[in-house]
Amino acid sequence: MSDLASDLPAAAAALSAEDRAGLVNALKDKLQLLAGQHVNVLETLSPKVRQRVEVLRDLQSQHDELEAKFLEERSQLEAKYQKLYEPLYTKRYEIVNGVIEVEEITNEVMSEEENKAAEEKGVPNFWLTALKTNEILAEEITERDEGALKYLKDIKWFRIDDPKGFKLEFHFDSNPYFKNSVLTKTYHMVDDDDPILEKAIGMEIEWHPGKCLTQKVLKKKPRKGSKNAKPITKTEKCESFFNFFNPPQIPEDDDDIDDDAVEDLQNLMEQDYDIGSTIRDKIIPHAVSWFTGEAAESDFEDIEADNDYDDEEGEGDEDDEDENEDGDEEEAGKTRRKSGGRAKPGKEQQTERPPECKQQ
Hints:
This protein is an alpha/beta fold and about 350 residues long.
């Protein structure tokens, strides 16, 4: 790793001595907090055993210092390879959107029917198909959304260092739904390694009149004999993939919300992070495999393997079933967080705009 920093942009250079010390201290603080909670245990030990434990704690401190260096070098390595991926993503964009043609097709002598088909540029509906093939994202995409997502040209993600987190960019061709050429979603994380979501920031979508996909217009006929002969119209929020750009928000005065509302909000925030991390970690790097369906089959096989393992683990006496019922829901949540990369929500999660659609 000695010459690694030379391959990286300035933003991904090695941590300063001050930052490294801060990271080590943070790890030590966590350890001290745990030690404080178990101080009574230490007091029950004999002097010799306690001395051995103190040596073990010193070993743990050395481990934490090495871990801090590991996290630093891993961040550098990820940044290096992100830079190496970029030319491949650029060529993928050019082929998908018909900017360039592959050599085999350019040099091939084609029949009249094939020539007619060749007028269709690129790979139509590439990103829409890739997104819909993923089980998590398919649940977010409605039939109304598909018309707009057909104009999606590319999805990119970038690591951000101050504050820590990542940013997603959705690049669209000119379309009849909204004016934006790029829609963004940014996640600020408290900790990249044990992800704790501080806040998610969406953006304003400039919908063309009558094209807002996140709201539906309801019309109600006036009552008979009413002076107002015009139908009564009102709008209400509806399901749409584009609600992704208006993330759930924690009220400024959280004393006004009850426990049930807090739990619902936490679930929404976890779901929002699941979507963002799935796009970053699965869709963007393996978009072609999702388009062809190969990635979905692979994911399904992994799930089946996990289920088989769970079945083997679950074989036991029936008497244990009642005893485990109370813990099932909690354990299921832990499994989802582990497999789906779900973050723990922090105090804030906000958007740059009010929830209503802005039409221009």
